[in-house]
Amino acid sequence: MNDSVYTQLLDLACGAFLLAAVVVLWLRQLSSIIRVFALQGAVLAALAALLGVREGRWDLLAVAVGIGLLRAGALPHIVRRALAAGTPPPARHYEEDNSEAREARPLVNVAASLIGAALLTLLAYAVARPLVELDPTPATRALPVGLAVVLIGFFTLVTRRRALAQVVGFLLLDNGITATAFLAASGVPLIVELGVSFDVLLAVLVLQILTTRMRAAFGGTGIDDLRELRD
Amino acid sequence: MTHATTALLLTAPVAVPLAASAAHAAGGLRELRPHRRAAHALPRHSAGPVHRPPSPRAPAEPAQVTGPATGGPATGSAAAGPATGSGGPGVGPGGPATLTGGPRTEPPGPPPLGPDDPAAAPPPATGPHAPARTTGAWLGLVSPATILFCGAALATTVPQRGPVTAYGRLLRADALTVWLLLAVGAVAALACAANPAHLAHERADAGTARRYNLLIHAFLAAMSAAVLAANLGVLWIAIEATTIVTAFLVGHRRTRASVEAAWKYVVICSAGIGLAFLGTVLLYYAARQAGIPEASALDWATLATHADHFDPAVTRLAMSLIVLGFGTKAGLAPLHAWLPDAHSQAPAPVSALMSGVLLSVAFAGLLRYKTVADAALGAGFTRTLLAGAALLTLALAALLLLVQRDYKRMLAYSSMEHMSLIALGTAIGTPLAVSAALLHIAGHGLVKTVAFCASGHILRIRRTARIGRVRGLLAEAPALGVGFGLAVVALLGLPPFSLFASELGLARAGFAAHHSGVAAVALLFVLVSFAALVSRTARMVLGPPPEPEAVADGPVRLGVVAAAPLVTGLVAAAALGVTTGPLTRLLSAAGEIVGRH
Predict the structure, then answer these.
(1) Alpha helical stretches, state H, B108-204
(2) C-alpha to C-alpha distance for B154 and B158, rounded to whole angstroms
(3) Most buried residue, B119, B253, B490, B588, by most Cβ within 10 Å?
(4) pLDDT for the residue B37
(5) Which of B188, B192, B202, B199 is nearest to B86 (CA)?
(6) From the CB of residue B22, how many other CB atoms can be counted at a distance below 10 Å?
């Protein structure tokens, strides 16, 4: 693979990765959000595989397969199952869909969210300048994309009012961190990568169970209902 | 010390609690089998794997094993009435099969405490589990005892001969590790000793008790791993594992409030600690660019010695994220919102563990990063970050203590206050200040454990967490009133308890290092917290009881085993305040690791 093809593929993957995060902010239907998140996981796996091929490191290809299985397979599956557990049968047409499966009233509306995403991306580029300057290669030049996805994930976490949308926000954050690790240093050591993946999987399982409990206790998964504990 | 001994001492604090946790899980499987044969249709999930607690919608499992209080955990279960659910099924390595003595007679204990005890003992147990069950409580103390023993054994050699490692560079113990290991072990011993009584009073069924014990031991294993990890990535994994394991302990009671607390806890802590991982990744990037090979680019000792070649701009960015992330888990502002909710909703022994040592273990992680960042950037950068976060936390905690109406939340905010004092000590950064901060960690852990365990008993007697509804504790339950009162006195930083010595040390170090401004502001906020704690606690402890008829038939007795952890904790904190004795050398060695002149 020559340099220009590698750079183009790398930029394509990073572009798709960032775009997926923005689309998550744009969508309201949770099932579509999960689908986009799974696509982002696949792109992340492709990114890892690309770096592995470029550096001739076959262990990275194995890591890429693992990442694909986890982030495009297992995690979206768990979130989808949590969603299906609480979704009532489809309502009739022409009725406002206020069901569990929809992010009806985010704290910041969709248009403002998209502007927010643009600003966060700019911020990521500003913050990441010393990171790029340290070792300017095609991969590190794409580093700001990883940081931007981290920031967008955090933004999703803070502004969305459905429990599962918050879970997706947390997972975006985590995807962003993994992408940063790959772009900066071709990933962290294998033992750390394994441990982190395991932790993330368990955290999402815990959150899935808590969603079920939340539904049992509060009759829904709206974060705004959580107001038992105040000072 | 031979290589094998070292490896054993470094492995046991993680392996033994993990084994205990696995034993509780296996106990579930083993109990299930006879029931299946007897065609009792149990929910499938009760045999589920360790990390998959059952769905809350499922019906509560039938209490499979109930037995009259037998000897075993002794007077504690006697004081607590029938030992339903005390300490989970005894399934140590020996297994229940070895413990098949007939049902023992109930020792004549003090009268049952509180009006909520079941009047009649549950039907005698059938099968081999009942006698084994009571030993479960003792087995619960095996993990803390192992941690303490390994800490003590390491404390005899590490300060003189320097750090030891095992398994290549995976586990490592220096003076700081040993000090924290001792703190974790001591607090865990107190909390685990309080567990059986807590479960008995909650009347937890066998499944609930088993899950609770399983998670507690896994929690201890994760904390030991975090303390012993030589690799910063492994340290991060262990800290995140504590969040996952404690999530269901916080949500143990399954009320609306505890579900809410657990949700906030997992979301805020996971996201916050995620930022710390991003910081770790950036530090790894800086290390790789400085020419450190992949295998050792997250090894703390390597990083600390080579950090002067790191790119300052990247290290600064990394350190900001790390302070924010580990600060979340250590209860420092701005991402502290989970703390009062989680600490007030968790069962008392869990609150004690979380407040007493989990915060400190997370903070010790931050200390490791601080040494790396200081070598790369000089002490100023981290000092500013830490001092800023600490003062903000201190101000928030003091103000919220002033308006607090819930005594468990009051204790939680007091934890934030003490964590910010520890952070300030680290920010000052001289060896004296760091030693004082480490002494503060140990003293706070012991005393806060006593306070939370006592608050659990208050909650049980009075059935309310409102400060306003608790009056005249001293008249109603003298032992409990004294215990809680003394714990708060210790938290206030009064002598003879060790928090007095450490706060004095912190103040002296602050003024000696010419940070008088910061020290003065901190003292002001500490005074505000002092006033708030004094006025609230005095109202709870002193005065006449609200219902005179409640104490007509004599004051409520606490029972020996329920009182033992409280007394032990207070005595240990007082002893530590009078002299650090044989630990002095360890403490100063630990201070030298982090501190810079």
Answers:
(1) 129-140, 142-161, 175-202
(2) 6
(3) B490
(4) 46
(5) B199
(6) 16
Collapsing DSSP to helix, strand or coil, B557 comes out as coil
Q: What is the CA radius of gyration of chain B?
A: 24
d(CA A25, CA A149): 11
Radius of gyration of chain A (CA): 18
Nearest Cα to Cα of residue B68 among B80, B78, B83, B79: B83
d(CA B1, CA B482): 44
Selected for mutation to probe chain A from B55, B277, B283, B335 (highest A CB count within 10 Å) is: B277
Average pLDDT of the residues of chain B = 81
Task: Please give the average per-residue pLDDT across B239-249, as a whole number.
Answer: 94
pLDDT, residue A88, reads 63
Residues above pLDDT 70, as percent of chain A: 93
Judge whether B48 is closer than 8 Å to chain A, CB to CB: no
pLDDT for residue B61 is more than 90:
no
- The residues spanned by each domain of chain B are 139-594
**Interface residue B49 vs chain A (CB under 8 A):** no
- Residue B359 near residue B331, CB atoms below 8 Å: yes
End-to-end CA distance of chain B: 32
Cα Dmax for chain B: 76
- Tell me the pLDDT band of B436, cut-offs 50, 70 and 90: very high
**CA-to-CA distance for B408 and B458, rounded, in angstroms?**
10
Q: Does A219 touch chain B (CB under 8 A)?
A: no
Are B404 and A231 inside 8 Å of each other by CB? Answer: yes
Q: Are the Cβ atoms of B286 and A134 closer than 8 angstroms?
A: yes
C-alpha span between B509 and B456 (Å, rounded): 36
Longest dimension (CA), chain A: 61
pLDDT digits (tens, 9 = 90+) for A220-230: 888 887 877 77
